[in-house]
Specification:
about 220 residues, mainly alpha, two-stranded antiparallel sheet
Length: about 220
């Protein structure tokens, strides 16, 4: 577990626990991954508006890699929920690759703007991102987390249903991206323990799963 005498000790629901160097590395990785998603979104929207749809794929790769790493290191008590978010990320990435293969990297986003049904292919990716936003709002009550939790689905579902035009959709996505970046920047000064949460709960659930596995065998 890489604990040392200098690791802080906290009292949790199921007993004392420590925040180790590994925990701090995982929290930093989570924060950097989520920041990469925000930068990728903002960079993509800015480049698309200023220079068109050519060569946007690096931003898409940054978003995919960033969210994948963030989901790898996020601390969520419920393992089924954690696995579901990872599955949504994977399905969304596969959908994006299929769209890129069918339409070409340069034609993918213009096609989504003009034919919003394609949003269904990448929707699971953004469902995973919404899940992260909800976790941030639920745990920390940060108002900027509303940008991901509400604005993102409103923008995509509004465009998918035809209630929003492309310009309004892009404006909402830009606002959501800016709020996500603000959320990430505000997280870096926080102690790692805030993102880890009550580690005794994780340890208790792991012991329960280990006990069930032993009984099953």
């Amino acid at each position: 577990m890489n604990t040392s005498s200098s690791d802080p000790v906290f009292e949790g629901v199921f007993g004392p626990y420590t925040i180790t160097e590994r925990d701090r590395r995982e929290v930093l990785g989570y924060r950097l991954g989520l920041t990469a998603v925000a930068i990728g979104q903002l960079g993509l929207l800015w480049q698309w508006r200023q220079f068109g749809a050519e060569l946007l794929w690096p931003w898409l790769l940054l978003m995919a890699a960033g969210l994948g790493l963030a989901l790898q290191w996020i601390h969520i008590y419920l393992r089924p929920l954690h696995l579901a978010l990872k599955l949504f990320w994977l399905l969304g990435c596969i959908g994006g690759l299929l769209l890129a293969w069918r339409l070409g990297p340069a034609g993918m986003l213009p096609s989504l703007a003009s034919q919003p049904l394609g949003i269904l292919a990448i929707g699971p990716f953004f469902a995973a991102l919404c899940g992260v936003g909800f976790k941030e709002f639920f745990c920390f009550r940060r108002p900027e987390a509303v940008g991901v939790t509400l604005l993102l689905p409103v923008a995509l579902l509004g465009r998918l249903s035809g209630l929003l035009d492309p310009a309004t959709t892009l404006a909402l996505l830009a606002l959501e991206s800016a709020l996500l970046l603000l959320l990430c920047l505000r997280k870096f000064p926080m102690a790692a323990a805030a993102d880890v949460g009550d580690k005794s709960v994780f340890l208790h659930l792991e012991r329960q799963r280990a006990g069930l596995a032993v009984e099953a065998s």
